[in-house]
């Protein structure tokens, strides 16, 4: 395994010490590895969200180019957004 020296704030050092003393982790290395695993997971989730947004944007732009859209007035926007919100709330998702 590779070894690195890192500079921690006093607060970060205390968090690590508290987790080790609690018995949840055997040593500081375990705490740091868990933190990096969580960071890696969060980064992967963010990339997946960004990819989904890119695909949705692409699909929306294609719909616009093909004339598949409706025009609404400003007075209808609130109602449309409320309807979309209600449908989204009823749609089960993995990460809610």
Give a brief rundown of this model.
InterPro entries: ParD, ParD_sf, Ribbon_hlx_hlx. It is built from 3 helices and no strands. With about 100 residues, it is mainly alpha-helical.
Structure description:
- It is a single chain.
- This protein has 96 residues and is an all-alpha fold.
- It has one domain.
- Helices cover 70% and strands 0% of the residues.
- The protein contains 3 helices and no strands.
- The longest helix has 38 residues.
- It starts with 9 loop residues before the first helix and ends in a 6-residue tail after the last helix.
pLDDT below 50 for ≥5 consecutive residues: which ranges?
none
Strand content: under 5%
Shape: elongated
Oligomer: single chain
So how many helices? 3
Number of strands: 0
- How many domains, in number, for the residues? 1
The main sheet comes to: none
Helix content: 55-70%
Secondary-structure element order, as H and E? HHH
Task: For the structure shown, list the relevant keywords.
96 residues, mainly alpha, 3 helices, elongated
How are the secondary structure elements laid out?
Layout: H1 10-21, H2 28-65, H3 74-90
